[in-house]
Amino acid sequence: MIKKIVFIVAFLLGSIYTFGQQEKNLLAYLSYGTFTVPGEGSYLETYLAVSGQSVVFAAVGDSLYQANIQVTIIFMQDSTVQNYTKYELQSPLVEDPEETNFGIIDQQRFMLSDGEYQMFIEIFDLNNPEVPAFSTEETVVLEFPDDAIQISAIQLIDTYHKVDVPSVITKNDYDLIPLVYAFYPASNTTLNFYTEVYFTDLILGDEGKFLVSYFIESAESQNMMQDFIFRKRMDSKPVNVLMSSIDISQLPSGNYNLAIEVRDIHNEILASNKLFFRRHNPAVTHQLSDLSAVNISHTFVDQYEDIEIMREYLRCLAPLSSEAERDYAYNLSNTAELSSMQRFFYYFWEKRNYDEPEKAWLTYFEDVIKVNATYKTITKRGYESDRGRVYLKYGPPNHIAESYNEPAAYPYEIWHYYSLGNQRNKRFVFVTKDMATNDFVLVHSDAIGELANYRWQLDIYKRTWDPNNIDQTSPEDAFGNRAYDYYKHPR
Known about the structure:
single chain, alpha+beta, Immunoglobulin-like, five-stranded mixed β-sheet, disordered N terminus
């Protein structure tokens, strides 16, 4: 059922946090994933990477130095602590504290019953007590009912090797060193991942067979990258393991999803999951289809004969476009090739709705008209503004908290989406310094692939309060300050 697929995907994507950054101010990244052991229970893993250059290395003996970081993780449910840990994370010993261009990696595992939790994280540099600890929280969900096929988190792996003695980083006889931040520079040519498929024996029978497809798709358009599609046949088991490596040396720069699909013998999708990642690979360019072969005769684009109108239509596609499509459309809009613009425009909408490309365009254009009327600024069309882009990309929010007259704040809006594709309860914070311009700038979102800024409250309250301490994450309590309340409790 589609409802099952939606919640399978929704809680497996994880989140990434970036903590304070300055000379010797903590810089760390945290992601998490959920798994289960059929018949025993579920668990959540946290993957933490701390930049060695952001922490203080204290002397250990006469000639060695070491960083010492205190980590606290608490899981709350209905105001009750369900699991927690507090530990010290130590770096490798080094001879030169200035030669610390490496990450300090840690992984923890927490047994938890299925359900929703508030995960609280606090990280503190014990060798740098003048810098306050940084803390944040995240809503996490574990849900693995056995009445449908389930997929675990997709865990990105830096390296892996077979072991005889298991540890907290061991799965199926392999030690998996996590890749905490989902970013692949040009120097990294391989994407390694691990995931598990559950309950195929219960749903398909002990003798059942199924197909697992895994592929890379554009995060914006959800179109598959044709050279990055793979399939594997499997037999039913309580737990099926998929661990694989993908050569991404020819994957161009852009935002992508690694997608997993479980299909039955009738090619019906039984479960799916996606993981967002970024790629920077400037030496490789995107290859769009040969647009000269696109036949636009007797199609809806025939009517668009005004080149200036066609240029405007191309520009307004940006919120939905992949990086390659944005670049291509931008270059086309600076030429006088009307027929090339028409072919690309038709190609763009045919990819999104093969049967009814004109209907897809007209539906989208209705929203473009709305945002141009509502979110235009002195210098921008509505679709070029941050609010317009978000509206066109994700649709109208379920709730908007508008605050234009708080005594200490710049005017701001907080948009709340109950669901955002396969994510749940995601927010966007927009701020403007002048209502007359109507230019509300996005300063923070907890949606995957969007700007994440843990100091977003300071951007709102800089009108009256601007601290010098870079580790300050929220303003001083003052009468009328409501941004955090609106953010945590949309209403």
